[in-house]
Amino acid sequence: MFITAVHHIAIITTNYQVSKTFYTEVLGFSIIAETYRAERDSYKLDLAINGLYQIELFSFPEAKERASYPEAKGLRHLAFAVTDIKAVFGHLQQKGITPQPIRVDGLTGKKFFFFYDPDGQPLEMYEQ
């Protein structure tokens, strides 16, 4: 296998417009493309993170519920690297997000915290 990178991360949303606002206006990701697929009654929003990574947001009318807490089986959480954890923490609070307290990773000594997107998906900010 010759895997060179993660290509994208796909997230299915409950409320497309709310999630679009969260990921673009709160987290600051830029829109690459937005597509409406009439045959699926579904939106697909391609977002760029710092020009290196891509998140795809989807809306599906009949999406099934999934457990959504950091210790659930399956994908645990999605973590984003930041340079100033306190500034990001404050920014999220100003946008009406209630992050969990900042903690220190016992293995690396780095600061991090968890918070949730509009669908309750666990997200992490990790200071580099």
TrEMBL record:
Pfam annotation, one family: Glyoxalase
Domain VOC: 5-128
Metal-binding listed as a keyword: yes
SUPFAM superfamilies, sorted: Glyoxalase/Bleomycin resistance protein/Dihydroxybiphenyl dioxygenase
Transmembrane feature ranges: none
Key words of the record: Metal-binding
Keyword Repressor: no
Domain of life: Bacteria
Family matches, as NCBIfam families: PRK11478.1
Name of this chain's protein: VOC family protein
UniProt source species: Terrimonas rubra
Lineage: Bacteria, Pseudomonadati, Bacteroidota, Chitinophagia, Chitinophagales
